[in-house]
Amino acid sequence: MKDPNWVFEIDSFLIEQVINLILNVIEMVSNPQIVVSATISHKGTTQIRVTDNDGGIPAEIVDRIFIPFFSTKKPELVLV
Fold first, then answer.
1. Is 44 left (phi over 0), alpha (psi -120 to 50) or beta?
2. Which residues contact 49 (CB under 8 A, 6 or more apart)?
3. What is d(CA 16, CA 50) in angstroms, rounded to the nearest whole number?
């Protein structure tokens, strides 16, 4: 069932991770197409799914994507 008026509570830290995933897609994918959906699992918990039109997260980094400050980007040198 689709309900555009569905309301649920969200942990602020976890939703920040969802937002970061979306921002990463926007930055890394040319012509990004993003779908965000929410469902209730068989255990009664809310699950948020983010899908995009890219090839996915490489297997060698998937276990690290939610570590704070983890990045595959090369650091930029900033001269002041």
1. left
2. 35, 36, 37, 38, 39
3. 13
Sign of CA dihedral 32, 50, 73, 26: positive
Distance separating alpha carbons of residues 46 and 8, to the nearest angstrom: 8
Residue 72 is encoded by which pair of tokens? 């595959």
Per-residue pLDDT of the chain (80 residues; tens, 9 = 90+): 567 777 778 888 888 888 888 888 888 888 999 998 888 888 888 888 888 898 888 889 889 887 877 888 777 778 87
